[in-house]
Amino acid sequence: MGFRKPSFGAHKHAKAADLKSHDREDREAIVVHSSIGSQSSLDKNEVFGDGDVNYRSVGWASTAVLLVKSQIGVGVLGIPATFHSLGLIPGILIFLFFAVLTTWSDYYLGVFKIKHPSVYSLQDCMTLVFGRWGGEFFGWSYWFFTAMVGASALLTIFVAVAAIATYPVASLRTLDKIKWLGWPALITIVIAIMIVVIGVAVGGRPSLAPQEGPIDLQMRLFNSPSFSEAMTAVSSLLFAFSGTPAFLPIASEMRDSRDFKKAVLLCQTFVTSFYLTVGVVVYYYAGQYVASPALGTAGPLLKRISYGFSLPGLLFTSVFYTHMPAKFLFMRLLRGTRHLTNSTKTHWVVWLSCVLVTLLFSYIVSSAIPVFSSLIGLVGAIFASLLCLHAEAFMYLFDVRARVRQGERTSFSTKFAIVYNVVVILVASFVLVAGAYGSVISIRDDYRANGGRPWSCADNSGSV
């Protein structure tokens, strides 16, 4: 076989092949940069950039506490009442169903963050999945949802007083400055809830029950609620796990995002066990006299004591769910500028304004819908399904599609996961539509029965 001098056409093909090789190397470099094992992508401050404000300073243990506290606060207070609406057995089954679904969603947020280090919020994730308008839709849904969670926290205290106390603490710029409040907040609200649990378990008469004479708790294993009542209860159970949208911004402020997954698993294990214990025990001993929020179930004395202990935890919920949506606005306005991570005049004016706008919105919502169960049912139906279930399922399918396009073979486990996530989307869609309908009907009925008076100073501690 002799050597043949390449022709001009062959030289062109060789040059084209060389260019394709360089393109392929560039693409591979990008993949390596955003891969799970890439330490360089984790060391770089992909979201915030560099400056005199260090946002990425939270360790995994503090992250776990923030995750737990973002879950335990308002949602747990509505669980016993949902068991009465649905019946204990259906209530527990639906509760565990949502526990499994949201644990997967929470876990995959960590996976997605490591694969795509530049994402900060669900808006960034959905921009990758659906483009700009999809990102805008999910981004503003996140803001409305987290601000409304803040509103529900204000509703469990005295709205105006809580709003005034929330502003200066929520204005602390980084989660590292707020995380120390998470520990006492978590401890105090757990103590407050356990006071109620122990109080009703040792024979204390529920505060909503007749204070004299025999009472019939009418504790039901199965119940026959109306469609609107059932969907309000289902939405409230989903709302109990609705800290998910805040998980990704928390991961973005971790020193090492790879530790997020173990923080999530610790969080969900504790939260699910605690929720189930509280829900079953309180409903078993309070029955039809269970209050929503649940702290109002205890007798008058224990009710006051439990609320006293819970105030730091409830206030932290208000602080946290003011800080997070405010940070979302702040990032939208200053991301990519030097003002984001440097303490300039623009930095402070924009940040403090974002906190104020968010808090005013929460105050207006909590004053306009002063019925706790109706508010969390509405929030859970519209936003929790969208942000805790829809978004993460779409994110998984987006990553799978990318792997398939790169020629990766689809294994049985991957096919199962695809089917699972499609089912999640269908379930979430049903909860969104039916739950929103049920909650709106519930709010209408509350107003007709004069159970909700907007802009009043009435006691919300035992409202149902």
UniProtKB/TrEMBL annotation:
Comp. bias intervals (Basic and acidic residues): 15-24
Keyword list, A-Z: Membrane, Transmembrane, Transmembrane helix
Region (Disordered): 1-24
Molecular functions (GO terms): L-amino acid transmembrane transporter activity
UniProt GO cellular component terms: membrane
Subcellular location: Membrane
Domain Amino acid transporter transmembrane residues, every copy: 156-436
Transmembrane stretches, start-end: 58-79, 86-104, 142-169, 181-202, 230-251, 263-285, 305-326, 347-369, 375-398, 418-438
Protein's recorded name: Amino acid transporter transmembrane domain-containing protein
Species: Rhodotorula paludigena
Lineage: Eukaryota, Fungi, Dikarya, Basidiomycota, Pucciniomycotina
